[in-house]
Amino acid sequence: MKDLDGLMRLEQECFGAEKFSEGTLKAFLVRDDAFALVAEDEGEVVGAAMCLCSKCRAEGRIASMAVLAARRRKGVGSLLLREAEKSLGMLGARIFGLEVDVGNEPAITLYLKHGYSLRAIIRDYYGAGRHAYMMEKVLPSRKRKVSVRPS
Questions:
Q1: Position 89 in a domain
Q2: Strand partners, 40
Q3: What confidence tens digit (pLDDT) does each residue in 104-122 have?
Q4: In a domain? residue 147
Q5: What pTM does this model have?
Q6: Which range marks the domain in which residue 94 is found?
Q7: d(CA 89, CA 92)
Q8: DSSP secondary structure code for residue 81 in this structure
Q9: Which runs of consecutive H residues, i.e. helices, occur in 16-128?
Q10: For residue range 66-97, what is the model confidence (pLDDT) as tens digits?
Q11: Can you give the CATH number for the domain in which 104 is found?
């Protein structure tokens, strides 16, 4: 929880009134099936990804991803997304999912660039009249090598 103050500042700047509360962040950080990744520059939290993994379903979810406005379009989001996918993959996830506001074109562009596709629209996800896209990335199945041996 050493990054809690930085995460709270990030939440405030990026999400304002819709930010996670400190209690919600703390509860998220102690879950067995969740983790946070923090992007930092000289000790300052400049971005974060909050992730969940369901090992039994081989599915990872990016519950929240944020980058400070001054650090956007400088590769921080791509770095966080790659590291989130890598960490989720190490936990067995083969499918990655997330929700994004239909009006957040820069984020949608980022996710499409990284191989996510639009799966559905979730009406009123962010409140009345504020919809979200459900986006998903499915990794190719691992190819097994068939071996031949003498009987």
A1: yes
A2: 45
A3: 999 999 999 999 999 999 9
A4: no
A5: 0.87
A6: 4-138
A7: 5
A8: H
A9: 22-29, 76-90, 105-113
A10: 999 999 999 999 999 999 999 999 999 999 99
A11: 3.40.630.30
